[in-house]
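To: structure subgroup
Subject: Chain for Friday's discussion

All,

I'm putting the inputs and outputs inline so they're searchable in the archive.
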Amino acid sequence: MADSKFSFLVMNIVLLIAFIGLANIVFGLHRLFFAAEFLFLGIMMLVALVSMFSIHNDIKFGWTLMSFSLFLILMDLLFIYLLKKPQSGLLLPAAVSGLIGFLISVMNIQGEEAGRESGKKTGSVRKEFKPGKYIASKTGKKFHSPKCDWAKKVKKQNAVWFNTKEEAQKAGYKADDCV
């Protein structure tokens, strides 16, 4: 659990650096290219918000969505660099933090898959419940046969089962008419 909290914290810092760098670069662009990149920046911020919410709440697709969004941000930074060669000093920190975040999210995806596979191999522990021949309520004074109408009224959380009449009588219960 501490590892997931640490990954969540690091991912928040990575996103902060990546989005500050990307926003600085986008605001240095002009006209139609600015409008398209500004729209892309807004969409990526919303996607990052949804993925961070799902990561925080342990929803399955959180890390996958985060790695996808960071991959798109890295491709966008490469696209901007190849077309405009921006003079901003934040391109390299944004790209490095995006790459670090991408690697962290991929490692968390692989960790979740390994956890699911190991969970399948071990099998789940199943609690078996085998009732006895007689039932009584913790709050009652009599014990009953399981087919008795009164026995059907006993709540499961209050049910006490006995294998023999003697066990029930030793526990302080009296036999009902249905026994």
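Points worth raising on Friday:
The chain has six helices and four strands.
The CA atoms of residues 141 and 172 lie 7 Å apart.

D.
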